[in-house]
Amino acid sequence: MFKNLFKKESSITKIYAPINGEIVSLEEVPDPVFSQKMMGDGIAIKPNKGQVYSPVEGEVVQIPDTKHAIGLRTGDGIEILIHIGLETVSLEGKGFTINVSTGDKVSVGEKLMEFDLEYVRNNASSDISPIVITNGQDTGKKFSMTEEKESTAGETVIITTSEQ
User: Fold this and answer.
1) Active-site option among 68, 83, 128, 158
2) What percent of the chain is predicted at pLDDT more than 70?
3) Is 13-163 CATH 3.30.70.100?
4) Which PANTHER family match (predicted)?
């Protein structure tokens, strides 16, 4: 009768799609850094709009000068990298508009950035955008990827975490 009384509540974090588009597995990303999960596990989205929204409640922890990516950290320490397109660092920030600053607290669905999708498609090697858990090994959590094929930013859950 008492065995569940002191059981720790398991903590589940839902990571929502930051971008509208087609969901693809990380293994399908045409860049070995992502497809071989060198930066961590995750998922990718082939965007159909040039807008990026926060996938979690958390804090903005990184925005490179080239504006092609945003790093976030959830309250329970999960670090998420949203990387727009491939080889977009070479665009040197052109086509990207950041709406937040490092240190900002953000909520699910809050607009983080906008990007010129056609410019990225024409000037980067791909518009496919990886969403990666960069510290997954350190969290003690298990990550499950969605089976969904289409994402709606702020609505579609793409990654669910649970205690291991």
Assistant:
1) 83
2) 94
3) no
4) PTS SYSTEM GLUCOSE-SPECIFIC EIIA COMPONENT
